[in-house]
Structures are given as C-alpha cells and as structure tokens.
Amino acid sequence: MSELSNIRVDDYNIQADISLNGNSDIGIVISHGANNDMENIYVKNLFYRLKEHYNVIRFNFSFVDKPENKNISINTNEIVACIGALNCKESILIGKSYGAKLSTHIAENDRAVRGVINLGYPLHKADDLSELSNEIKILRSVSDKALFIIGSEDPLFDVRAFKRLVPQARIIEIEGGDHSFKGKTDEESLSNLKRVIEAVTSKVDELVR
C-alpha cells in the first residue's frame, strides 16, 4: 500500500489511499462494506485496476476504528468528503454493500455523480422482504445511472422482486455468488472476483465515454 492520506471530515480525519491521474477529470470513490475496510479484496483490486486511468480514492469509514461512528449520516458525509478531496468535475461512486447503499443515496441528490456501481447491494434483511419498499423510491430515481452487480445466491437481494419493482434497472448476476460473491470453491470465488472486476471496469469506461 502507498502512504495513506488524511481527509478531514468535520472535526476528525479518515484514512484514505488516493491516486491522481492528470489525464482525467473524473473522480472515483470506492466505499467498503460494514464488516470490513478498504483492504477488502474487491475494494483493493478495483482501486489498483482503475487508478491506471482515473483519479481514484479508497478509504476507511471512521467506524473501522470507532464502532460508535457507524451511522448513515456520519458515513455519508465521509463519502462526500472523499468526493471533495478528489476535486473533480464529476464523480463515479462504487460501493460494496453498506458502501453501495450510501453511495446510491448520494447519487440520488448529486447531479455531479455520473454513475453509481453497487456491489452486493443490501436491499433487505436476509430472506426478509418486509421492508423492501423503503428503498424502492431511491432505487428507481437512480436507475438510469446505476449498475447492480449481485450474487445469484445473495440472501440480501431478491433479484426477482427487484426486477419487478425497478424494471428499468441494470443488473449483472454473478452465478453462484453470495453477498460477497464467494462461490462454493476457491476456484469459483476467484472466477467471480475476476468477473466483477471486469464488469465494473467496463461500466466505468462506458460512463466516461
């Protein structure tokens, strides 16, 4: 890992790994999930893949060191601070699980967000669709600039229900993958990783054209 930077958020700092590319005016912010950090295999691999051509930042939410900071408002502000740190005209947000949810909420209200790529979006509680309606309005409003990459065995995302409620959304299913895209074998998990990385890279390239 390169030397980390500190990004100021209100009265505290969060740690970030920043790569700037002078040939691009697009900033990409990659957010991790609730139970990991920026060393997550998907976050890390995407960062190193995308920094070859774009301005990219990966970071740790403050709750990595301070669990009491796991809060939607606090953590949303941290993503916004990362967008500001890149100081680009437009941004693309990539989020894993919890990071995907917050990134989508930002994309709904920020016209400078060109696209949002969601990896394992937590649509509902495990195998429980009772609160599904809480997310649908937001997801419909961002469907024109969002991509959902979902494991076919993800208990937090009912693909059939989602397609029925947000028919215009673009979804890529990773066959056999769970919420973290893990397969039944290490070989399947590695294959899923490669497919996700390629899908994200392709979508980013599409968004900047």
TrEMBL record:
Coiled coil: none
Residue ranges of domain KANL3/Tex30 alpha/beta hydrolase-like in the record: 28-201
One Pfam family matching this protein: Abhydrolase_11
Protein name: KANL3/Tex30 alpha/beta hydrolase-like domain-containing protein
Lineage per the UniProt record: unclassified sequences, metagenomes, ecological metagenomes
